[in-house]
Specification:
globular, Jelly Rolls, seven-stranded antiparallel beta sheet
């Protein structure tokens, strides 16, 4: 009977941990994406631009490859504007991971990424990326906090965007908030980036995207 009690406890703990985070900028509308990576093959649309992706026991493992001479990066195409993006992640020995957006084509006179939430082992931030077409443009840190991310702990992250406002949540952390004039633009999909050595991987799971009303 002890193993039954232990199994019930594990199920209960997982269920509690897996609860969705409620947004603060609006209400969740239509569920636009839900990916659990539980199938036998890589789901359609999940392809590495640089670095590597692989499935391990129902989770997505992502890594940088030194041979690419570029931080690991992949995108999932899903046109959004006001939205909430949630994922579970385990940092492991990875030095940095980003979740963010590019501006849709024609939305801005800018080259490069729009915004990201950035997580490192000792901090997390909301940043607005520089314009790669302008040598004088600089990446701007809108909000940051020093806090430890345990490499063996799985955290749930919610990134919400509505108009020019952005709020990010992580289980057990105080939310970060930011506002910028360009954040309201249409976005062609999700952008994931990860930095580390060849043998280091971040674990990603349970990716959900809602329209934010």
């Amino acid at each position: 009977m002890k193993w039954i009690a232990l199994l019930s406890l594990l199920i209960s703990s997982h269920a509690a941990f897996a609860a969705d985070i409620d947004p603060t900028l609006g209400k969740k509308g239509a569920l636009l994406l839900e990916e659990t990576f539980s199938g036998p093959a890589m789901p359609k649309g999940w392809n590495a631009n640089t670095g590597s992706l692989r499935l391990v026991e129902g989770t997505l493992h992502a890594a940088e490859k030194s041979s690419d001479k570029h931080i690991g990066a992949f995108r999932y195409r899903l046109p959004v504007q006001d939205c909430a993006v949630q994922m579970d992640f385990k940092l492991g020995s990875m030095r940095i991971i980003n979740l963010g957006f590019d501006p849709a084509t024609g939305e801005l006179k800018k080259k490069g990424h729009l915004l990201s939430v950035v997580v490192t082992p000792k901090s997390w931030s909301i940043i607005e990326h520089n314009d790669k077409a302008n040598p004088e443009s600089k990446t701007k840190v809108h909000a940051t906090a020093k806090t430890d991310f345990d490499p063996a702990t799985t955290y749930t992250l919610l990134l919400e965007c509505k108009g020019n406002d952005v709020v990010t949540h992580v289980t057990g952390k105080e939310p970060l908030k930011a506002t910028a004039p360009d954040f309201h633009v249409k976005k062609p999909g999700l952008v994931f980036r990860m930095g580390g050595k060849d043998d280091q991987e971040v674990v990603i799971d349970n990716v959900k995207v809602w329209a934010l009303e």
